[in-house]
Amino acid sequence: MGGMPVDVELGKHIAMSTQTHLNFLGDIFYLHAPYPHETLVSLGDIVLNVGGFIFIQKMMVKRRPPIKGSVMDGTA
Fold this sequence. Notes:
This protein is of the alpha+beta class. The protein has 1 helix and 4 strands; from the N terminus they run ββββα. 24% of the residues lie in helices and 17% in strands. The longest helix is centred in the last third of the chain and has 18 residues. The N and C termini lie far apart (84 Å).
């Protein structure tokens, strides 16, 4: 049977084709062992995860007041 080409789907991932726009935003990085399960990720996924990691790290670090007499205190 003839018909229009259909995108191949694998879970939530859809294979890119010649009709795909903005390919660089798609899932282009293949992760395999030692990761728990094989998956595809995009550049946006990586940026979002790195940003979330940095945000959590900054929220976990307790800021200390500057030491009196130090350069940071401005009284030296």
